[in-house]
Amino acid sequence: MASEKLTPKGMARRRLIGAAAGSAILAVTPATGGAGGVARAPGQGEESFDLLIRGGKVVDPSQNLEAVRDVAIRDGKIARLGTDIPVARARQVIDADAKMVTPGLIDLHAHVFPYVGPYGIEPDPYFLARGVTTAVDAGTSGAFTFPAFRRFVIERAATRIRALLHVVSIGMVAGSTPNMGELEDLRYCDPKLAARVAGENRDLIVGFKIRFSKQYTGANDLEGMRRARAAGDEAGLPIMIHIGGSYTPLPELLALMKKGDVVTHSFNSHPHGLLDESGALLPEVLAARDRGVWFDVGHGAGSFSFAVMERCLKQGFPPDTISSDLYSANLNGPVYDFPTTLSKFLLLGMDLSEVVRRATVNSARVFNFGAQLGTLQPGAEADVSVLELREGEFTFTDSDGKTRSGRQKLFPVVTVRGGKTFYPPAQPA
User: Fold this and answer.
1) By C-alpha distance, which of 135, 148, 140, 142 is closest to 119?
2) How many domains does the chain have?
3) Which of 16, 134, 155, 369 could form a disulfide with 106 if both were Cys (CB 3.0 to 4.6 A apart)?
4) Which helix (H) or strand (E) holds 78?
């Protein structure tokens, strides 16, 4: 059974265009001992497995399961979930004693199109190596740039990547540069072009993305919303909208959202958010959830507030899904990685199983990934995250620069993607 160690520096990189590097993986090396695996040959006549993850505490909300179990994998699928599966039947064994085993984590909002614009990062060292088996790129590419994203990043990555195509054809190439927001020139926002490119790439494009903050849109956000709606309806795909600091009040944007659409950056402290001036949830927000709109975290460098999240939790409005919005500007804080983002919800009082739910089975239901994800049921994709929940004193920071101390933090131990094992870079204590 192959194992791979991924680190963001010193990697043997594949080449992209010219000297630009693509997503890369170090040469395969056998896992050994400890949290790694022990290679062995199963006995003749026995049911054999490629990999056995043994003795970990399985937290699988899709099955309402939270108990010590063994997870056996064969041919890239979950083959068996049970107790006391003989180690002699597996070619490779991972000892997960005192560790947590979950379905492969799904990050619904990330930016993994590097070298085109200021946002993208390489997927494998920052996602697969850190517990995330599936990452959704949230609009980094548009119709003009998606072919390069597909060929030079998605098809070369070991991380499973799906894309939300930006309705604006240039994607997010300008960042937040003043007077260069992607929606300031509506000629680039062509819903028919977006729908056509999505139709040509239905195996990878799972929806559309559009951003609604004044620095990206000027006064064009409502017209952009109409065009995003048109693209989604024509292609039969959901849309994800970025909120916070929009020109148009949020209720007018929500009015155009349908069942299956997604609001991201939901819990930020910017104007035109989920809360009114008194801190109460807007009735239009509650109505949107009632009709099937998903509300996602999308932490990012500027889009998650402990205080806003706390107010929403007190009003019975938790996030439907948790995502990191990990990109180049927040790798060194306040986001760091997806397990750190999840840990913040433990700090806020959410149960561990409910946190895992919002990064696995809930996330798997939002888009059509073309595979059975978010579960450890036999027959599902062999995507598994082995994590350690450490006790200690940890400081967490939100996007407003506010810090809080917590007693628990999740760390990646080993990630299994399609039955292959990947290990993280050295983690700080």
Assistant:
1) 140
2) 1
3) 134
4) strand 77-82
The pLDDT assigned to 391 comes to 97
Q: Does residue 358 lie in a domain region? A: yes
Q: Is residue 343 part of a domain?
A: yes
**Phi, psi (degrees; rounded to nearest 5) at 405:** -100, 140
pLDDT at 1 over 60: no
pLDDT digits (tens, 9 = 90+) for 316-364: 999 999 999 999 999 999 999 999 999 999 999 999 999 999 999 999 9
pLDDT at 47: 86
Domain extent for 184: 105-366
- Is residue 412, in this structure, part of any structural domain at all? no
CATH of the domain at 285: 3.20.20.140
| 329 within a domain of the structure (yes/no) | yes
Kindly state the helix (H) or strand (E) to which residue 253 belongs, with its residue range: helix 250-254
The whole-number pLDDT of residue 425 equals: 79
Q: Cβ of 395: how many Cβ atoms within 10 Å?
A: 9
Phi-psi region of 122 (alpha: psi -120 to 50; beta: other; left: phi over 0): beta
Q: What is the number of H-type helices and E-type strands within the chain?
A: 11, 17
Beta bridge partners of 54: 95
Mean pLDDT to the nearest integer, 142-167: 98
Q: What is the pTM of this model?
A: 0.91
